[in-house]
Amino acid sequence: MELVKKSLLFLGLIAVSSCGDKVEKSVVDCFGQSILIDVEHKASDSNASKIDFNITYAGKETVDNAVRWDFGDGTVQDFTGRDASHTYTKAGTYTAIAKVGLNNGYCSFDIKETVTIK
């Protein structure tokens, strides 16, 4: 198993080093930016099944204005901006996924947030 890991790492390094500087820079930049972006959520004060989501970002790049949300219950919706709300109709645990881009899609991330509705 260790040999397989080392082989895959070696092949990955060869692939990155064989690309031009721009591609190599974008891989490093996007990976670094991915640790600076997150999704937080909280239940609405008036309805515990209504969840308000907020994307947080601590970097210097521009967060794309359009965000595609998959709320984990079969609902997929596009929102403008970093905030979204969704009302779940059944109790359960859901994985909400926000597809977030930076700099007009230069980097793109799927940010996951686990939500439990009682």
Automatic annotation (TrEMBL):
Note the InterPro entries from the entry.
Ig-like_fold, PKD/Chitinase_dom, PKD_dom, PKD_dom_sf
Pfam families in alphabetical order:
PKD_4
Q: Which residues form the PKD domain?
A: 50-118
Q: Where is the signal peptide?
A: none
Classify the source by domain of life. Bacteria
This one is known as PKD domain-containing protein
**Which species expresses this protein natively?**
Sphingobacterium paramultivorum
